[in-house]
Design goal:
The protein is 75% helix and 0% strand. The chain has one domain. It contains six helices and no strands. The mean pLDDT is 90. Helix 1 runs antiparallel to helix 6, helix 2 runs parallel beside helix 6 and helix 5 runs antiparallel to helix 6. It is mainly alpha-helical. It is elongated. Part of the tripartite ATP-independent periplasmic (TRAP) transport system. It is found in: Cell inner membrane. The complex comprises the extracytoplasmic solute receptor protein and the two transmembrane proteins. InterPro entries: DctQ, TRAP_DctQ.
Length: 178
């Protein structure tokens, strides 16, 4: 179990680091959106590339931070109901949700999105809009984002099982010594 908890800690560290790096993409999205709006309304000039860049940045923020959000326990939950139960019942429900809902959905999306990325990369797909950007970087975000979410799901699964086994005191912590 200690080996699995170390793997969990590594996954947590990766998603935490990516989440903190992606904070900067929020600033970039705000700057790009602001500059684009000012230029569009002040000199009546716009570019599809700038609009698509905004879309790419939003997609990167949303997809790359899905694992980080799960790590921070800030995803959508049913806490209003689940919060009335013991930590053990909450951990068991989390395990069920990870195994039955998260893993099948995330793995399926990752699996189905990879060929779309690959085809886009191989053909160097471009936006159909004049002056638009290449598409493969945005399409790569989908399998990468769902991989990070799946990995964080594995980390959370390990922590919940360790909690139920009495190896750690709280489902969200790393481990303590017995």
């Amino acid at each position: 179990m200690r080996f699995l908890l170390r793997i969990s800690g590594l996954i947590d560290a990766v998603n935490d680091g990516i989440g903190k790096l992606v904070y900067w993409l929020v600033l970039a999205a705000v700057v790009v959106s602001s500059v684009n709006a000012v230029v569009r309304y002040s000199i009546n000039y716009s570019s599809n590339a700038w609009l698509e860049l905004q879309w790419y940045l939003f997609a990167a923020i949303f997809l790359l931070c899905s694992g980080y959000t799960f790590l921070r326990n800030e995803h959508i939950r049913i806490d209003i109901i689940l919060g009335r139960f013991s930590k053990r019942v909450q951990a068991a429900v989390d395990i069920f949700g990870i195994l039955v809902f998260l893993f099948p959905m995330a793995i399926l999306i990752m699996w189905l999105s990879w060929p779309m990325f690959r085809d886009s990369f191989v053909t160097n797909e471009m936006s159909s809009d004049a002056g638009g950007l290449i598409r493969w970087p945005a399409k790569l975000l989908v399998p990468v984002g769902f991989f990070l979410l799946t990995a964080q799901g594995l980390s959370e699964l390990i922590k919940r099982i360790a909690f139920l086994a009495g190896v750690i005191d709280q489902p969200g912590e790393k481990m303590h010594s017995h």
